[in-house]
Each structure stands twice: as C-alpha cells, then as structure tokens.
Write a structure and sequence with these properties.
heterodimer; A: alpha+beta; four-stranded antiparallel sheet; 43% helix; B: alpha+beta; five-stranded antiparallel sheet; 5 helices; disordered N terminus; Small ribosomal subunit protein uS10m (chain B); structural constituent of ribosome (chain B)
C-alpha cells in the first residue's frame, strides 16, 4: 500500500533538470502556451545569450597591434630590446609546436603558444638593427696596424700570452680556469748557445714542442690572473738565467758516455784515423759519415756513404765487397 | 628641549672646514671608494694590446638558438671590420642520468633525465685590444638565455728587456 502511494508521486512531479532542457531549446514547453502568468523557468546559461555577450565584448576591444602597424615602420623601434614573444606585436604568421600527424595537422599558431614564448627570439637583432648598432660602436674600435704581417708580428712580439674569460649563468661569478695563464715562447727569440739550449731543454722537459720549437709555461698556482702572469714571466727568467750559468761541476759531469749525439771532434774514431795520414778532406768526409751513422742510425744511405768514405780513406778499389 | 638645541648648534657651527676635520678619517674621494669615475683624458693611457686571435667557444642547449646567435656574431664581426677565421662544430654531448624514482626501494622504477649540449667555435683574427673589447662587450650583452661563452685570448707581447741579451753580457755592459 505504501509503495503504491509513492510511485505515482515521483512520476507526477517533473524534475528541475527536465524543465531546464526544455527551456534551453528555445521552444515553449510541450503542452504550455504563452501564458503571461506562468513564465518558463530558465535556470541554465543559454548558449546563444553567452555567445552574444562574448561577441559584444570582442567588438569593443581594439584590433591587435599588428593590424595597426604601418608597413614602413622601423622594426628596431617596435622591438628595441630582448623581450618575450608577444603575438599581437609581431606581424608574422608564425607557427611552432609538435603535432602527431604533421601531414594532416598544422603546428599551433602564435596565440597562447608556450613553446614560442619559451624560446629565445632574435626579433631585437634584425640585420638593419645590427648594422645601425655596429655603426655607432665603430668609433671605439681601432684598426689592425697597417703593414703588420704575421712574420713581422713574430719578430716584434714573439711572446704569446693565453688567458680565458667565461660568461655563463651560474650561482657564482667565479670560474676556476679564469686565473690560468699560459705563456708560449719560441726558443729562436732567446740568445742561446748549444749548451745553453741543451740545459734549457733538460730543465723544461716535455713543455718543449720539438716540431714548433716553442716552450709552453702554464701558471695556475696563484689565485689571481695577474699573479699567475707574473709568475710565468718569473719562471721564464729563471729558466733562461739558469741555462746561461755554468757550474764548476758541470764540466766533470759530462763525459763522452753521457752525450746524446756522437761528436767527431776529439773522439776515439778520429784518433784511430789520424795515423793513416790521409788527406784532410778525405778524413773530414769519413768523419761526417761516421757521425751520420751514429746519430741517424743505420740506413741504406748512411751505410752507402760510410762505405764510400772508407774506400776513399783506405785507398781500396771501388768494386771491393760491392754486392 | 636639549634635542632641539643640538640641531640648532649643528646648523650654525658646522662649517665646511669643521665638517672636513670631523670626517677626515672617514671621508674618501669617489674613486677611492670604488665608484667609477670618468677617465681623465689628459692621463697617459695604456697602449693598445694586440691579439693574434680570439677563440669564442659557445655552448648551448638549443641548436637553433645557437645557429641564430652565430649568425649574429658573424654579422657583427663583418660590420665592425673584424676578420673571421674558422668556424667549426665540436661533437655534441648528451648527458643522460637514470635515477631511482622512489626515495626507498622500488628499484625497478626509474626516471631518466637528459641534458643536451651543442658546441660551436668561432675564430677571430688580428684584433687590437680596443676592437676586441668593443666586439666582446656588444656580443656578450646580446648573449641569449641558454648559451654560455668562453673567450680564449691569444695576446702577443714583446720579450721583456732583461731577456733580450745574455745575463753575462748585460752584466759586463752594466759594469762598463
């Protein structure tokens, strides 16, 4: 009995949602006439009303700036400094972004495009602007001296000082390599005898490049660049002065066995050849052949030269032992 | 009452001389305080340095921005009369990290990060110190975000005087 009472009541009362849908369709409710006493209840936002309001709001806004810009404007005045991309200020139909089907979809447009706003734009550095700015800066530049060729520069300024500067975004201004100073010195610019040069090369070790004959001194032990530069120059001074010095014990230390290269003058080979009493030029050519053999190693050419010199020295016939 | 009297005394008694005497220990010229003072044109200026070359190494996260910036560098060099040498691209470097997603356990679940670095090196030849400073200041002010620059300066200097002759020769010259 109770359930029968409730069922018809639920069916009889129309729900609020039902009323709303009928009203949004814009037509009077089924079964209702335009009765002035009973207006249809309108709870929701009708789509047409909302759209009309939006259009009215858009009409009152001015057109975007790029539609009002003259064609012959100075772009450098419109975009004078680096700035985040603003779509209404740029009169270009730009598109940027990823699409899943590039053959079917166009990339997103410039309005509300986060990718376009994130990336650094170079709109403030168009070629005419660069030219204008460089023209203004040209007065602070000085020309390279006329007639200063690379060879002349090597003569006048043989020393090369290498330093590094860094520019990057970081919590700190400092860079540990900014204080490092390298000094490149060609040995040809220093006044050195053979023994001086030998001593210098021993002191310097692998800082010397045999191909270019340049010494590289790198200083990074001081905290400031200026101090490292002074230290490098001091090091060069010390090396040069030490290599020019002669210690009393150096003469005793260097025996024939210590020499890197064979020297004909005063050698046992010269002493052995002297009693033969050959002509001076023959002895000299033999000396050169022996020197080459020792210093450059055994080679077809060195051995041939030695053979020729020996044959001349001993006065043997040319074809002896020739195979 | 006493406070008002002090102010009156200050305004009447504190002449310029008194002020300087009182503050002489703390008063310093602007230059001594580390402020920039316009250079006096009558002072002797240091001679211009000479650079045989300048190497600009650029590192960036975005290759398109790097390309645009290098184009700007080349145009600026052309307009300022700077000779450009080589331009080459060292191989890019991708740093990849695979880290655990969770603070504790779940080692099967990782998260991967990647940092991409692109390089470009531009060589400028035969510059004076003024030109180099002007060019570098201009281009460094225009450096976009995401790019870092390293400038290697190869300055050419003459040999110091004390190294131009042998020490024994200079000693004998000095003595004579």
């Amino acid at each position: 009995m109770l359930s029968l009472c409730f069922l018809p009541a639920r069916a009889a009362v129309p729900s609020a949602r039902l009323v709303c849908v009928r009203a949004a369709s814009g037509q009077p409710a089924a079964g209702r006439t335009d009765d002035p006493q009973f207006r249809p209840l309108d709870i929701g936002r009708r789509r047409e009303v909302v759209q009309q309001a939006r259009e009215r709001r858009r009409a009152t806004l001015p057109p975007p700036r790029h539609e009002r810009q003259p064609v012959n404007q100075q772009w450098g005045d419109v975009w004078p400094a680096p700035r985040t991309f603003h779509p209404d200020a740029v009169p270009l139909p730009l598109r940027q972004g990823f699409v899943k089907r590039p053959n079917a979809q166009a990339p997103p447009g410039k309005h509300a495009n986060a990718e376009l706003m994130k990336i650094a734009n170079f709109l403030h550095l168009t070629p005419p602007v660069i030219e204008r700015q460089c023209r203004a800066l040209a007065k602070f530049c000085t020309p390279w001296p006329e007639g200063l060729t690379d060879e002349r520069l090597d003569e006048l300024r043989p020393l090369e000082v290498i330093t590094q500067d860094f520019l990057h975004a970081s919590p700190t201004l400092r860079h540990p390599d900014a204080r490092v100073v390298s000094l490149k010195v060609p040995l040809s610019c220093l006044d050195l005898t053979e023994t001086d040069r030998d001593k210098l090369l021993r002191l310097v070790g692998d800082r010397h490049d045999p191909k270019t004959d340049v010494i590289t001194l790198t200083a990074d032990r001081c905290p400031l660049r200026r101090q490292n530069r002074d230290y490098a120059l001091y090091l060069l001074t010390v090396l040069y002065f030490e290599s020019c010095k002669r210690e009393p014990w150096e003469a005793e230390l260097r025996t024939v066995a210590d020499a890197e290269k064979f020297v004909w003058a005063g050698s046992a080979s010269e002493a052995a050849v002297a009693p033969l009493g050959a002509a001076a030029d023959v002895v000299n050519s033999y000396g050169e052949a022996v020197t080459r053999l020792h210093n450059e190693g055994e080679d077809e050419s060195t051995l041939a030269e030695y053979r020729k010199a020996v044959v001349a020295l001993l006065g043997l016939p040319e074809h002896v032992g020739a195979n | 009452m006493s406070r008002i009297r002090l102010i009156q005394l200050g305004s009447s008694c504190l002449s310029k001389a008194n002020f300087q005497n009182i503050c002489s220990s703390g008063f310093k010229a602007p230059a001594a305080r580390g402020l920039q003072v316009p250079a006096d044109p009558t002072r002797r200026q240091r001679p211009d340095l000479l650079y045989s070359r300048l190497e600009l190494e650029l590192r960036a996260h975005d290759p398109a921005v790097l390309d645009s910036y290098v184009t700007f560098l080349q145009q600026a060099a052309r307009h300022l009369g700077v000779t450009t040498g080589k331009l080459w691209e060292p191989p890019r470097h991708y740093q990849r990290l695979s880290l655990l997603k969770s603070v504790h356990i779940f080692a099967k679940h990782k998260v991967q990060y990647e940092a991409r670095t692109y390089f470009r090196v531009l060589e400028l030849l035969r510059l004076t110190g003024s030109t180099a400073d002007t060019y570098l200041e201009y281009t460094q002010r225009m450096l976009p975000e995401g790019i870092a620059m390293k400038v290697s300066r190869y300055a050419r200097e003459s040999l110091p005087e004390h190294l131009s002759q042998r020490p024994d020769q200079s000693e004998s010259d000095g003595k004579s």
